[in-house]
Amino acid sequence: MSNIELGLWSFPVLLVLIFLRMPIGLAMLVVGVVGNYLITKSWNPSFALFKSLTYSTFSSYSFAVVPLFLLMGQFAAMSGVSRSLFDAATAWLGHRRGGIAMASIGACTAFGSICGSSLATAATMGQVALPELKRHGYSGALATGTLAAGGTIGILVPPSWILVIYAILTEQNIAKLFLAAIVPGVLAAVGYCLTIAIVARVRPEHAGTAYPRLPYRERFRQLGRIWPAPVIFLAVIGGIYTGIFTPTEAAAVGAVGTGLIAIFNRTLTWPAFRTAMVQMATGTGMIFMIILGAAALNNFLALSQLPQAAAAFVTEQGFNPWLVMTLILIMYLILGGPMDSLSMILLTIPIVYPVTLALDFGLSPEEFSIWFGILTLVVVEVGLISPPVGMNLFVINSMSKGTSIGQTFLGVTPFLISDLVRTVILVAFPSISLFLVQWLH
């Protein structure tokens, strides 16, 4: 078997190990080490990876951003900001048909701007919004579908640590990637709100009752209570963009800022602080294990010459670039269910990025890298709400007593359609992702 064939066979083997419930990071590490042995015919280079690869991977200053953004998300979840965001959104939208569900989407978008985690956004906003949706008669299907979909916005709107990982892998500017994610994130929120409006009119029995219309004085009063979220967002993103902070320093500023808000709101007790630190450490350990496994696997793939062979094959065959892009995005949609976002990006980017970069989409290499990063994140996050294995669906469903998982699957279907429409729009019009970057640089 040739080295390239070994590289090709590593993917079905990896998927089998994952379906056998081996942790993804460990599965990638095993495939990478064994594959390295099969190519070099010696265990010495394989085991040397544990020394050289571990040090070279985790001594990178850039990866310090991961625990800091995770800690920022933990503090944001316990700061009490989620309640004020939901109340403010409800004050402006709650009187409309399906307005409380729309308010949930708006609150998820705003909370995601200081959290950066899809699952944390879904779980935190679920605790706040789900009781209100149920109390006003929303069906379990629409309530859980709304919150599962809204959670996916949390990792798209900046600051997103997944985008930081993508930037490190492709050697791109993190500030430009964050700027490029803003409009697609807003587009996702608008699309979800339009979806709710359509569902509320086609199936009004799912939408429940509305809040009474509030006077503008009360609406602005509620709006004034959400000041911590935009302050943290502007401090982090503005600091990165203006060059005052590096991304790692900005993550530290965000973590301190959300922590101070939690202290001010008297929600960050000593036991809560310990819980946040343990959750941050556990999450960091899990993520770093996935990063190490992906590094070992990618080292093996580099030895097999599979990425270079794939790029050369696609270029020589003269395939239509848009067809190749469509097939890659479909692959992400399919694999996004059984694999989490980070694993997908770490596993696939070293292979598909050189392939797509060699194609002509009428963009400069930097513009293409930014556009492709946003597209990748969008379609991978769709996997989080794709039945039957989307993680957001199970997180929200577990919080909704009396709602079957089948009802949640049914409730999220309209949002999946919205996601597919949004993906087509972002593919067809790269300028949607790029115009802020081009305008501000």
Notes on the structure:
- It is a single chain.
- The chain has about 450 residues and is mainly alpha-helical.
- The chain has one domain (about 20-35, about 60-440).
- It is about 80% helix and about 0% strand.
- It is built from 21 helices and no strands.
- Helix 1 (about 5-20) runs antiparallel to helix 14.
- About 50% of the residues are buried.
What labels describe this entry?
mainly alpha, 441 residues, 21 helices
Topology:
Elements: H1 3-19, H2 24-40, H3 43-58, H4 65-77, H5 81-93, H6 99-115, H7 118-135, H8 140-152, H9 161-170, H10 174-202, H11 216-224, H12 228-242, H13 247-264, H14 270-304, H15 306-317, H16 321-335, H17 341-357, H18 365-382, H19 391-399, H20 405-428, H21 431-440
Helix pairs in contact: 1-2, 1-14, 2-3, 2-14, 3-14, 4-13, 4-14, 5-6, 5-11, 6-7, 6-8, 6-10, 6-12, 7-8, 7-19, 8-19, 8-20, 9-17, 9-18, 10-18, 10-20, 10-21, 12-13, 14-17, 15-17, 16-18, 17-18, 18-20
- Low-confidence residue ranges: none
Helix content: over 70%
Q: What oligomeric arrangement do these chains adopt?
A: single chain
**What would you report as the Rg, rounded to the nearest angstrom?**
22 Å
Could you say how many structural domains there are in total? 1
End-to-end Cα distance: 49 Å
SS content category: mainly alpha
* Spatial shape: globular
Number of E strands: 0
The share of residues in extended strands comes to under 5%
